[in-house]
Specification:
Elements lengths: L1 E5 L2 E9 L3 H14 L5 E8 L5 E5 L9 H10 L5 E8 L6 H17 L3
Antiparallel strand pairs: 1-2, 2-5, 3-4, 3-5
Helix pairs in contact: 2-3
Length: about 120
């Protein structure tokens, strides 16, 4: 788990080894329960095995500013069977599209550095 703060918004990121969609759902459910007051719970995953599954989710952030940057970090490292989740607590200052992309990319990179 890694945590960064950018303009009063807190980004908490974690990476998980997953092999099925069921594992992804279980991890996400647990994170959402632990972070009920979070503004956004964004994630991306790549699962390879009998099926190849890829998904990025922005959870209310502007389209393409959260899930896709997380997914790009996973793909640049050529990883599979991994889920990266970034929880954001909004600090009251808007970051703009570029700021969000940088924040979610950095958070994902930090989470994967421990993977």
């Amino acid at each position: 788990m890694a945590e960064i703060e950018i303009k009063k918004s807190k980004f908490i990121s974690s990476s998980f080894k997953v092999e099925t969609l069921e594992e992804v759902k279980n991890v996400l459910e647990e994170i959402k329960l632990k972070n009920k007051k979070a503004t956004h719970v964004c994630f991306a995953y790549v699962i390879s095995g009998t099926e190849f599954l890829v998904k990025a989710f922005d959870d209310g952030e502007p389209s393409g500013t959260a899930g896709k940057p997380i997914l790009n970090v996973i793909q640049k490292q050529n990883l599979s069977n991994v889920l990266v989740v970034v929880v954001r607590y909004f600090g009251g200052i808007k970051l703009g599209a570029g700021g969000l992309v940088r924040a979610y990319s950095k958070a994902a990179s930090l989470a994967l550095s421990e993977f």
